[in-house]
Design goal:
Elements (H helix, E strand, L loop, with lengths): L1 E5 L8 H15 L3 E3 L9 H10 L7 E6 L5 H12 L5 E5 L26 H8 L1 H14 L2 E4 L2 H11 L6 E3 L18 E6 L8 H14 L7 E7 L3 H4 L6 H11 L6 E5 L6 H6 L3 E4 L18 H8 L3 E5 L4 H4 L5 E4 L4 H13 L2 H16 L2 H15 L3
Parallel strand pairs: 1-2, 1-3, 3-4, 4-5, 5-6, 7-8, 7-10, 8-9, 10-11, 11-12
Helix pairs in contact: 1-15, 2-3, 7-13, 11-14
Length: 391
């Protein structure tokens, strides 16, 4: 079987690029030949359509795309393919259900005039143009041979919003790398880890405030809790005009009196990620959903960081944003209402009072890690692709 993969790929610094690279490698190990016709075209819809027009699609059995992360190139490539080749099997993993792409590449006239105006006019124009975007998403979704989500929550939301037949949407959980197990560190102190790209919307401020609240209530807890902030700090995600987001976080840490509790590990080499995660007891992902995005729908994706936690055999404390509640619902962690600093502080307090929770969560996380190995995930994709290609 020869499959064309339409997706961002490393060195692009996105979770979807990392996912696509791992999926490609796992498929190739399983015997599927994978080609990447859009490699190097970035998130440029026009270049992506040009690649579609230049590639010989008679050489592939199926096309699979990765949709999400604010990207439009793959969406427009799929639209062009469906127009040119009505019978070619097309599939896509939808990383940010309940929508495919959430926005158009350009606004129609006269709404396009708002693009040059100050905020909030461009945002208002985007909301006004959303019915057109939604219509285009539904049209493409309905024409695809199959769609994949990473969670059952995402599947249900995608089916409803895109008005799809239930049998067209499949759940294939995020694959996990096969890693050597490592025992938990000693439970004193309890080591917490935030892992992921460092930018607004991840709720990092809430985590700092909750940690400060615990210390305020129990000063001795400063010796029993440690936090590492680890992840990507690329300029396009961490910085903007004026004071950088990283500087704002550092200033907040000093103001809250947390400097002695917190360690930074930015831009960790890929070869050191597993070791870094396994040096901690629990991963904390306090994400907040975007209020602006909520005007367009509910984002019910998951996180590659949670996949890393499971692969490394570590539990997680997450907010109830996205589909996180489902991901930690089987005994590998707990959730709190997003933005609720008091509730997050209570979860941290639970760890201080019941450190055995770290062990319980880690045990279940390790089981999930084995259940979702990339080798198993690739077999599920391969079986689905074969079915859609007629065997």
């Amino acid at each position: 079987m020869r499959v064309a993969l339409l997706a961002p790929l490393p060195p692009e610094q996105t979770g979807i690029a990392d996912y696509a690279a791992l999926l490609r490698a796992a498929l190739e190990v399983s015997g599927v030949e994978v080609v990447t016709p859009l490699a190097g075209c970035g998130n440029d819809p026009e270049r992506a359509v040009g690649r579609v027009q230049a590639f010989d699609w008679s050489t592939v059995d199926l096309v699979h795309a990765e949709l999400g992360g604010g990207r439009l190139a793959e969406f427009h490539a799929l639209r062009e393919l469906r127009t040119r080749f009505p019978q070619l099997p097309l599939t896509a993993t939808v990383h940010d259900p309940e929508r495919l792409v959430w926005r158009r590449a350009s606004l129609p006239w006269p709404l396009s005039l708002a693009s040059s105006l100050p905020s909030p006019w461009p945002q208002a124009a985007t909301v006004l143009a959303d019915p057109l975007c939604l219509h285009e998403e539904r049209r493409l979704a309905g024409s695809l041979s199959g769609l994949i989500t990473l969670t059952a929550t995402g599947r249900a939301c995608l089916i409803k919003r895109m008005r799809l037949d239930a049998d067209k949407v499949h759940v294939i959980h995020h694959g996990n790398q096969e890693l050597a197990p490592a025992p938990l560190p000693p439970l004193a102190p309890i080591r917490l880890l935030y892992f992921g790209f460092i930018y607004r919307g991840k709720g990092i401020e809430d985590l700092l405030d909750a940690l400060a609240l615990v210390i305020e209530r129990q000063p001795h807890a400063a010796e029993r809790l440690k936090l590492t902030l680890a992840g990507g700090s690329a300029p396009e995600t961490a910085f903007e005009p004026g004071e950088s987001y990283l500087d704002q976080l550092r200033r907040r840490i000093v103001e809250k009196g947390l400097a002695s509790l917190i360690e930074w590990r930015l831009d960790i080499p890929a070869t050191e990620i597993a070791e870094q995660i396994q040096a901690h007891h629990v991963m904390v992902l306090p994400y907040r959903e975007s209020k602006k995005l909520s005007l367009l729908g509910a984002q019910r994706g998951t996180s590659g960081a949670l996949s890393w936690a499971a692969a490394c055999g570590r539990g997680a404390i997450t907010s109830d944003a996205r589909a996180f509640a489902e991901e930690v619902s089987t005994g590998n962690g707990t959730t709190f209402p997003q933005g609720d600093v008091q509730a997050l502080a209570a979860r941290l307090q639970d760890l201080l009072e019941q450190p055995q929770l770290c062990q319980q969560w880690a045990g279940r996380a390790a089981e999930i890690g084995r259940e979702r190995l990339w080798s198993v995930t690739a077999k599920r994709f391969k079986a689905l692709f074969a079915d859609l290609c007629g065997g």
